[in-house]
UniProtKB/TrEMBL annotation:
Originating species: Schizosaccharomyces japonicus (strain yFS275 / FY16936)
SMART domains attached to this UniProt entry: Aamy (SM00642)
GO biological process: carbohydrate metabolic process
Binding site for substrate: W106, H145, R226, G256, D320, R367
Domain Glycosyl hydrolase family 13 catalytic: 38-392
Active site: D228 (nucleophile), E252 (proton donor)
InterPro entries: A-amylase-like, GH, GH13_cat_dom, Glyco_hydro_b
Stored Pfam families: Alpha-amylase
Site feature (Transition state stabilizer) residues: D320
Record protein name field: Alpha-amylase
GO cellular component: cell surface
Family listed: Belongs to the glycosyl hydrolase 13 family.
Amino acid sequence: MILAMFRPFLSCLGYTPKAPEKANDYGAAIWRKQNIYQLLTDRFARNEDDYDHPATGRLYLGGTWRGIISKLDYLQSLGITAVWISPIVKNIEETTGYGQAYHGYWTEDMTELNSHFGTADDLRALVQALHERNMLCMIDIVVNHMAHSGSGPVNFARYRPFHRAEDYHEKRFIRDYDNLNDCLTGWLGDNVVCLPDIRTENPRICSIFQNWIAFLHREYNFDGIRVDTAKHVQKTFYPPFVHAANVFAMAEVFHGDPAYVGVYQHYLPSVLNYPLYYQLRDTFLDRKQNMSVFYQKAVLDIHRSFYDVTTAGNFVENHDVPRFLHTCRDYSLAVNALVATIFMDGFPIIYQGQEQMYNGGDDPENRDALWKSRYDTTNSMFRVISSLLKYRLKLCDIYSNFTTEPTQPLLVNDQLYAFTRPGVYVILTNMGSTFNSRIQIPLRTTCENKPLVDAFDEKPPAGLESRIASSTLHTSIQFGFPKVLIDPSILY
């Protein structure tokens, strides 16, 4: 009904909603509702709290699966419902020119767990502890490569289960990341740490991978997987692999072009929304473009190219990119970008430390351990994220179409992008903390007088209340902060 009501306005803005096709989505309906927290196991929590323990660098620092269990209260207080943990399998043990494999992406043996993080029983206990709280577990996996330290000959015999030289493409580093064949057959890395590229086009190797992921799921009962370096493996590898896993799968396709990334949704249920990430940075961090351009690129272009935007994972920080606050000194802009990830189409991903306003730059500064924050739940960013995520959970519970109905644009101009979803109105701006403005937005509704709750200020000063009156949304932007206006009925 609502979608039909807005169709004429959507068409004039150049957006025509696509009806989803029926397919095996491996639990997408459940994952759309999740608020995901990405963590690096080594950097999230140790078995026993030691807030003065070293928290940065390129060596193992002692985070464990048991440590994660001890901080589930913290994550739930943030509004998190699903936890994405870093890769779980055994990595190379050398201390390389780039440090140790604390992050988990330098695989040596896929048949063994990484003992630095704990035992098989510890991992099972983590998944069980999450399930007992009605939370989900997503594990990160690597199917593209193994790892080798230095420029010398690679000893393939050390790897499991692919221990023969013919299991790998010939050593040749990728030169052109926009060249598909180069990405599929070339090696990532360099002569400090190189990543031998597995021949995932080989049917025998594909079969081994399928058996491996099926075994892993049986053993540990996780709920989803995130596939690292997905664009470096041929797309046809994924459907039988995901079928064998029989869980929701989200692909990392590190590229800003929606058409390039969107294709992968025909092979896996979900992708990380890198196209949105780049638009968030261009709009709210570098401020290279206004809100009209943001709407064109971050909404229209993505909707045209993605098979289903509602299953995309939205983020503004992760372990591979500098923290947003590393260069952004305007808190209002950071909150606008955050609100976009939470309330635009897709599901939000909060990266460890984002809620503590970490501001590190490139690796390893963007991977600092969380214990240095003392797991503070009183700082302003923690409270903002917690409030917004909990409002989103309420909206998901009350409105069955909240996660599947596309956002409906209400106003688009150079200063503002306003949209609505069931039960909420959202206004974004990149004008910064000096921007103040009263706003009136015509609505297609017969509601004559209805107050709205401001997620950032539930009891605003007199005269600054937000409301719908005479089919018009009346509100104001103060100090450049976004507006998240909630139907008060969801609070009771």
